[in-house]
What does this fold into?
Amino acid sequence: MRGTGDEGANGVVLDVEDLPPRPFGGKPMLRLLELLESQALTSVQEKLIRDATSTEAESAAVDRARDLGFLGAAPDAIDYGTTHDYAATPSSAAPESVASTYAAVATDLAGPPTAVGPQWRSIGPWTVTNGQTYGSSRVNVSGRISALAVDPSSPAHVLAGAANGGVWESGDRGASWRPCTDYQATLTVGALAFDPSTPSIAYCGTGEGDWWSFLGNGVLRSTNGGSSWTAVCTTPFVGQGFYSLIVDPTTGQGLYAGTTEGLYVSADSGTTWTQRRSSQTWTVATGGGQLLAACRDGVFQSTDSGTTWTTVALAGAPASFDRLAVAIAPSNTAVAYAWGAGPPYIPQPGGGQIPTAYLWRRAGGNWTAIGTPPGVATGQAWYDWYVAVAPDRDTQVYCGAIELHRGDLAVGGWTWRVLTNKGTTGDSIHPDQHTIGFEPGTPDTVYAGNDGGLFRSPDRGITWRSCNNGLVVSEFEYLAHDWGSARWLIGGTQDNGTNRWTGSSTWEHVEDADGGDVVVNRQTPGTVVLSRQWGGLRRSLSRGSFNTWSWINPARPAGEGVGLFYPPIEGSATTGDTIAIGMQALYVSRDSGGGWTRLGFPGGGVASAMYIPDPDTVVVGLTNGGVLRTTFSTAWSPLAAIATPRPSAAVSDLYAEPGATGRLIATSRAAGGGRVFVSDDGGTNWTDRTAGLPPLPVNAVAVDTRNHNRIWVAADLGVYESRDAGTTWSTFSNSLPNAFIGDLIYHPHSRVLRAGTRNRGVWEIPVDGWMTQPVCGTQWTGTLQANETRRWFTFRWPATWHVLWTVMPTTVALGAPQITWQTQVERADAEFATYWITVRNLTSSPVSFEGRYAILSRY
It folds into this structure.
C-alpha cells in the first residue's frame, strides 16, 4: 500500500496530486473504511479513524472521512466524486460484539478436517516469484507479516504471524514453514513472544492492531514452541488488536501487552489481565529492570513490574501521537529510542495531511531529539511503524515506516541508510514495514516482516534473502480462470499485484500495483484484463505474462469519480468479447477494451458488483443497493433499474442467467438483514434466502452450471452450499482454514470450486469429490465391411478431461487381430475438444464394434 502515482482516464500515469482524495492514513485506511462501510459498521469505522490519528487530529480525520463519502453523506461535492453512497442503516455494534460474532462462527467451523465428503486443499501460492519489490532485483514474496518472534534458545526456530493468516512456524530460519493456527477462533495476529526463561512457551496476541483489530479474540498460548496453540484468555481482549506482547525475562509469569485499548499487565502467565493505562499502546519494552511503553499520549516508564507508570519527558513532543514506538538497547539498557509521528500536520497535494516524524535517544538518563531519516514517509504511520535497536550496538537503530531505515551514530554524527533498496541496485524487499527481529547470538542477522512477507539479512540490512517459500499467506482480492484449463488461475492481491498459477504450487507475479479484479476472455483466453487500484485497466494478449500489459482505460468526463478502490470488472460468462467496469458510471466494451460506451447510473451511484451472463447483457449492483440492467441490440440500452433486493444495502456480488430475465442472485455484506436474495423472474421479485447462514457478511456467489439450484456462497468465514436455490444451507468448509474469503469461482468442466482468501492464499475443492475410479461408457457403435477404414468423431468434450478411447470388436472371430484404431484430437475452441477416431477392419469379413471411453480425471 504505497502512496505512489497511478493511471489516469486515458492510461496516462498521474502524479500523486491528481489521485482521488484519501482519508487520513492513506490507502490502507481507505481500504479498511470501504470494507467496514460495506458492512455498515459505522461505529467501528469511527473508532478506527480515531485510533489512527492523534487526539488533535481526531475530529478532522472523522470529518475528512465523512467528506469523502464514509460515515454518511458528504456535505459538499468532491471533484473525484468519491462519495460511496453506502446507505445501509449504520450499525452501532462495538468491535467486541463484532469479534464475538466472528469467533462464534469460527468455533462452529473449527476442528481438524474430517474424512467425510469433499475436502478443500491449498493450491498456494507456496511462494510468488518475480515479487513486487522495488529495487533492481525482484525476489519471492508472500503476504502481510504482522508479527515475528525468534526463539532465544534455538536461533533457527522462528514464528511469524500473518495479518489474517495465523501463526506459522519455521525450524530452518525461514527456509520452510508450516501453519499452526488454521482452526483457531481468529487467524488475525498482532503480536508474538517467546518466554525467555522457558522458550518452549510462546504467546500470540490476536487481532492485528495495524488493520484487523476489530477481530481480536484474546491471547493464545503454546507449550511446544509454537507448534500448537490453545486460548489462554479472551477477556478483556475481544474486539481489541494487539501491537506488542512481551514476557518478563526473569519469571515468565509477568506479561505486558500494548493494544488498541491500552496497556495491560498479567501476573499469571496471561490468564488474567489488569489494565494499567487506558491510552492506546503500541509498544512495551523491557530491559535493565525497567519497562517503557509507547502510548498515544507519550512514553511512560515503570520500575515496579508495570504496576505504576510515570511520564517520560520528550523535548518538543506533541501532546498526542498518531503512532509511537519505543525500544531499549539490549547491549546497554541505559540507552533507549522513541520513534513517533504526530502533529503538526503537513498539507499534501490533492488534500489531506501527514504527520511530522520524531526521533529521540536516551543516553546518560536524558532524552534528546535527533534527526529523523531523510525522506521518511509518515502518511501511513498508523499502519506501518516500529523501532528496534541492534542487539550489540546501542548506536544502531532500525526505524520502520513504509521503508526500513537504519541509523548509525559515529563521531561525525548520524548517518542513515534506506535498507529496502527502493529504486537502487542490490537486493530489495517489499515496503510497508510491520515487524523486525534479530537472530540470538548473531546480531548481524535481521528479519523484516512487511506487506510482501518475511525477509532475512545476514549483514544488518545491506543484502536480503526471501523467507517466503512455504509461507502461504497471500491476500487475494479477486480470482479468474481459464475455462479450458483446470490448472490456470489469475488473481489480484493486496499490494502484491496480480499473480498467475499454471499448476505449480509456486505462482508467478505478472503485474504490479494493488491487484484488483480480473477477467479472462472465455473464447480467447489469451486475452486477459485486470484492474489496478481505482480502476486502472490493463490488457494482455499473451495470457497475462509479465511485461505484456497495456493501458485500456475508458475516458471519463471531467469531475467524474473512479468509485471504489477495487471497482468491479467482468467479462461475458458465455461467448463474445464484452467486458465492463463499474465505477461512478458503467463502461462497456464489445471488443475487450478497444472501445468503450459510457452508461450513467440513473440517480447516480457507485458500482460494487457486476455480472455479464452473455455478450448482450450486463447487470450491475450499486453500493446503495440498486440493481440495474442494460442490453445490446444495435446499441447499449440506457441502464434501467430492476427491483432492489435489499434497499440501502450494498450489493457484494451478482449472478444472472443469460438474458438476465430468469434467475438472478444478489449478495450483500451489510449487517442486520438479508444477505442472499434469489429472483426467478429477472429481478421483478426477490426472495430472501439468508435463513440458515451465519450472521456474517456474504462476499461472493457461484452456481453449478449443471444444476442451477446448487449454489455456493462465501462469507467472511466459511463457504456454504444450498441444493435448493437457497431454501436451506449447509456448511461446505471441510478442511478450509478460518480465513476471510473474498472471492469464489466455479470451474464447470473440472467441477472444482476455488476460494480466494485474505492471507491464506487460494483453496480449491472438487464439489463432488475427486474421481476415485474412471467413468467408462460406450460412445458409439459401428460396423466396417471387409478391409474398410472409416472415421468417427465425437465433439464438445471438455479439454480439461483426461480421456482414453478404446475400440472393441463385438463380432467374435478367433485367431488374429480384427481391427486397429487411431485417435486424433482437435481443439474445437478454447475449452472443448473433438476426438477423431479412425477405425480399420483388418479382416476380410465385416466387423461390428463399440467405441468406448474412459474418463480418468476431469481435472
User: Anything to note?
Assistant: The helical segments are 26-38, 42-51, 58-67, 95-109.
